[in-house]
Design a protein that fits this description.
Blueprint: E1 2-4, E2 8-13, E3 16-21, E4 24-25, E5 28-29, H1 34-46, H2 49-58, E6 61-69, E7 72-82, E8 88-96, E9 102-111, E10 114-117, E11 121-122, E12 170-172, E13 178-180, E14 189-194, H3 199-211, E15 220-225, H4 230-239, E16 246-249, H5 259-264, E17 271-275, E18 281-286, H6 291-299
Parallel strand pairs: 14-15, 15-16
Antiparallel strand pairs: 1-2, 2-3, 4-5, 6-7, 7-8, 8-9, 9-10, 9-11, 12-13, 14-17, 17-18
C-alpha cells in the first residue's frame, strides 16, 4: 500500500512502514520496495507532466506495434535514452487502444555490456477521474497495514507430477475468459505446452491432427500457448484452422517463468502432459521425435477406436 503526493511517498510493505521524499531524482529512481515502485510508475506516466513533455520532445520515442494486456488491445512504444556512461535505458510502455491510458511498463538498462531487464509492471485496475477523499493523501502508514510476503515456493522443473491431480491453475480462452485446468476433467486429456515460433510444436500438432480420428471420443487435446504474446498466439490459431484442438493461453503471457510453467516444468516446448478421465496425471514427457513415436507413447495408456 502506497500513496504519492508528488513529493513524498508513504508506504507499508512487507510489514514495514516508512516514507521517502522525491521518489524520482535526476539520475534514476529510488525504490525501497515494490509498493513504492508501483505508485511511482503510476505517478510518472499518468501525472508527471515534466517527464512526459521531455519524453515527447526528445524524438526518442519509437512505435513498436500492437500487443495486449489482460485481453485489452494496446499500442507498444519504446522510449530510449543514451547516458553519459555509454549506457542506455529503454522503457517499454503499453498504452490502451481504447482509453489511451497506460496499462504496463518494463525497462531494460544497458551498462558497460551488462543488460538488466526489470519485471513488467501491469496496471490491472484503472478508474478515470475517480473521487478520493482528502484523507487518502494524508495516509500515515503502519506496519499492520501489510504483512510480510512469504517466500516463493521453489519448484524443480524436473520434478515428477505423475500421480498428482490436475491443479486448479488458471488458463484463458480466446475471449480472455478464465477457466481452470481442473474444469476440463471428465475425459482423457493430452495437454500440450507449445509456442507459435518453434517448429517442433507445429510438427507435433500435425501429428496429433492425424491421430485425432484414431482417438476421437477417447482423447481431448488441450493446447496451452506459452512464452509468446497473446496477440501473436491468437493470430497463429486463426491462420491454422486445421487444428481443432482446445486452445487456451497462459494468463501470464509472455512470461517464461509463470506459475503454470513452473508447476509443470514447461521451460522448454513442446511439453506433453497426459491426464486420465479422473483428473490424475498419468505421464509427462518433453520434445517431439516423430508421429510414430507419439502414437506408440499414447498407445501405452489409451486404446484407439480404430486402426
Amino acid at each position: 500500500m502506497s500513496v504519492l503526493d508528488g513529493d513524498i511517498t508513504r508506504y507499508s510493505a512487507d510489514g514495514i512502514a516508512g516514507e521517502i521524499r522525491r521518489t524520482f531524482f535526476a539520475g534514476g529512481q529510488i525504490v525501497p520496495n515494490r509498493s513504492a515502485s508501483d505508485v511511482a510508475i503510476t505517478w510518472r506516466m499518468l501525472l508527471d507532466r515534466d517527464y512526459l513533455s521531455t519524453a515527447i520532445e526528445s524524438g526518442n520515442i519509437v512505435y513498436a506495434g500492437k500487443d495486449d494486456i489482460d485481453g485489452e488491445l494496446c499500442h507498444t512504444v519504446l522510449y530510449v535514452r543514451v547516458g553519459e556512461d555509454s549506457g542506455s535505458t529503454t522503457d517499454w510502455y503499453w498504452i490502451s487502444a481504447k482509453t489511451g491510458l497506460l496499462r504496463a511498463v518494463q525497462r531494460a538498462s544497458l551498462r558497460r555490456g551488462a543488460t538488466r531487464l526489470t519485471d513488467r509492471s501491469i496496471i490491472s485496475i484503472l478508474r478515470i477521474n475517480p473521487r478520493f477523499p482528502p484523507s487518502v493523501f494524508s495516509y500515515v502508514p503502519t506496519p499492520a497495514d501489510s504483512t510480510p510476503e512469504p517466500p516463493a515456493p521453489r519448484i524443480s522443473a524436473t520434478r515428477s507430477v505423475q500421480g498428482m491431480r490436475l491443479p486448479d491453475l488458471e488458463v484463458k480462452d480466446a475471449s480472455y475468459a478464465s477457466l481452470k485446468l481442473s474444469d476440463l476433467v471428465g475425459e482423457p486429456l493430452l495437454i500440450l505446452f507449445w509456442t507459435p515460433w518453434y517448429g517442433a510444436c507445429y510438427d507435433e500438432m500435425q501429428a496429433l491432427a492425424k491421430l485425432e480420428s484414431d482417438y476421437r471420443g477417447s482423447l481431448r487435446v488441450v493446447a496451452i500457448a506459452v512464452q509468446d504474446s497473446r496477440l501473436n498466439v491468437l493470430s497463429w490459431i486463426k491462420d491454422h484452422p486445421q487444428f481443432a484442438f482446445t486452445f487456451v493461453t497462459d494468463p501470464e503471457l509472455p512470461e517464461a517463468a509463470s506459475r503454470l510453467a513452473a508447476y509443470f516444468g514447461a521451460s522448454a516446448t513442446p511439453l506433453n502432459v497426459l491426464v486420465g478421465a479422473d483428473g490424475v496425471i498419468i505421464d509427462k514427457w518433453g520434445g517431439f521425435g516423430s508421429a510414430a513415436e507419439l502414437e506408440k507413447k499414447l498407445s501405452r495408456y489409451l486404446q484407439p477406436l480404430r486402426k
